[in-house]
Amino acid sequence: MRMHQNNNLSRQRDAHISLDATLSPHHNSWNTCTKRGCPMPISEDISTMIDQTSWIRKMFEEGARRKQQFGADKVFDFSIGNPVFEPPAEVQEALIQLARDSTPGTHRYMPNPGYPETRNFMADTIAAESGKPFEMADIIMTCGAGGALNVVLRTLLNPGDEVIIIKPFFVDYINYISNYSGVAKPVESKKDFSLDINAIKATLSDKTRAMILNSPHNPTGIVYNAGSVDALGTILKEHSEKIGTPVSLISDEPYRYISYEVEVPWICNHYASSIIVNSFSKDLALPGERIGYIAISPEHEDRAMLQSGLVISLRILGFVNAPAMMQRLLPLAGKAKIDTAPYRKNRDLLYNHLRELNFSCIKPEGAFYLFPEAPIEDDLAFVRSAQELNLLLVPGSGFGAPGYCRIAYCFDPDMIEHSLPVFTQLAEKFNMR
C-alpha cells in the first residue's frame, strides 16, 4: 500500500468546479475583484477556506443535487457520516418526556459548563468505564465534539503553538487549529495507518502544545491499540519533562462506542495530561442535536487551570452553554447506545466486495468508514469516475492522504446491497477484475 506524498493542492483546485456545484455564484467575482485591487468583502482566510472547503460537504451537496436529477434510488451517496438509523427507544422516550415538561425554568440559562446533574452523570459514567476518579468539575458540556475541540484549542494555544495531528486526519483539524493562530503539524502514519511513534517523536519541539488523537479513526476506521497509545504516552511524558510544560493529548472520541472486534483504550490510563472530547452524534444517533462534552483527566498537571479556562473559552467563543434539553436528556437515557450490528453488516458487505474487486483496503475496527486505496494515483480523477456512475465518494486528498478515498457506510443495508454492482462497474472501468 502506498501513501502518496505529493502536494495535491493544485489538483484540488482543478477539480473544484466539476465537483462542487454549490459554490456561491459570487465566488469568481470576488477573485476578479481582488485582482483589480479592490478589497475583498470577506477575510482572506475564509476566502481560502472556500477554495479548499471540505470535500465531505462538497460531495454531500452534490449527492443532494444528483438525487433530485436522477432519483434517490439511483444515487449511492457514501460521502458523509450522517447515520440513517434512528436514536434508541430510551432516547425517543426521554425526548417525549422532556417535551411535555412544563416546569418553570427548564429552558433558561444554566451554569456555563452545564447542569450539575448532567456533569455528575457523565463523570460517574466515565469513571466507571475508565477506572479514573473523574469529578463533576472535570466535565464541561459542549455543542458537540467540534465545539469541544474549539473550546480546548482556544484554552490551550498561544499564537505559533504547534499541534500534532496524524495523517490521514479529520478534514477540519487544520482549520480548528488555525482559528487560534496555532500551527498544525501533520505526521505520517505507518502503511497500515497505525501510529508511527518515531515520526511523532521527531516532530515534537519546544513549541508543541498539544496533540490530537482520533480513535476509532475517521477516515480509516482503525483503533489505536493500548500498546501504541502507551508508547505515545511515554514519549509525550518525556518531552513534557524536557520542555518544562505538559503537552496535552486531546483524544477525539465520537466513535468510541462503535467498535467491533477490539477494545478502545481509555487515553487517561496511558497519559496523565490528557483531555477527552466526545459527542453523542454517533452512539445515540443525534448528530443534528449538537451535544457533547470535554473530560479533563483527573491527573492532568494543569487540571485546575483547565477547569476554569475551558469555561471562559466556552462563553467567549459564543457557545455559552450546551443545549439545555439535550443535557437533561442524557441522564434520562442512561446507558442507551445504538445497535452496532447494522454497521458491522455494512462493513463486512462492502469490505469483502471491495477485496473481491482487488481494492487494497484495511479492514475497519471501528467507526463506519472504509478508506481504500484508489487504483490510480490521482484520487480526484478516480472520484470523478465514480461520480459518473452516481457513486459519491470523498477523495483522500481532503484528509491529507492523496491516493485514497473514503466510503461512509452508516446507511440502510439495502442501499449497500444495491450499490455493490456499481462498485463492480467502477472496478471494471479501471481494469481491476
Can you walk through the features of this model?
With about 425 residues, this protein is α/β, with parallel strands linked by helices. It folds into two domains: about 10-85 and about 340-430, Aspartate Aminotransferase, domain 1, CATH 3.90.1150.10; about 90-335, Type I PLP-dependent aspartate aminotransferase-like (Major domain) (Aspartate Aminotransferase, domain 2, 3-Layer(aba) Sandwich). It has 16 helices and twelve strands. It has helices at about 10-15, 15-20, 25-35, 45-50, 55-70, 90-100, 115-130, 145-155, 175-180, 195-205, 225-245, 305-315, 325-335, 340-355, 380-390, 415-430; strands spanning about 75, 140, 160-165, 185-190, 210-215, 250, 275-280, 290-295, 370, 390, 395, 405-410. It has a seven-stranded mixed beta sheet with strand order 2-8-7-6-5-3-4, sandwiched between helices. Strands 9-12-11 form a three-stranded antiparallel beta sheet. Helix 11 (about 225-245) links the parallel strand 5 and strand 6. Helix 6 (about 90-100) packs across helix 13 and helix 7 crosses helix 13 (about 325-335). The longest helix has 18 residues, at about 225-245. The relative contact order is 0.16.
